[in-house]
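Let's inspect one such protein example.
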Amino acid sequence: MKQFYGTSENAVKTQIWVAVSVYVLVAIVKKRLDLDASLYTLLQILSLTLFEKIPILQALSQERPSPEQEQDGNQLKLFES
């Protein structure tokens, strides 16, 4: 954590507990899925793919999805390419 969003005692404690909880949950996922990536790398991947609709295993795996897998039939396109 680089900075706290709230400065009251309760806000700081809550933010620390949330950070520790996320770290522990990612460590559990790493162990259960037997991933080779570091916890820092996994946290970076999860922060980048937080709002994407892809399976968690696909987001954390090293392989890139094929173009057929990337296209979502329900996704509207802003610009035609």
Remarks:
- The mean pLDDT is 82.
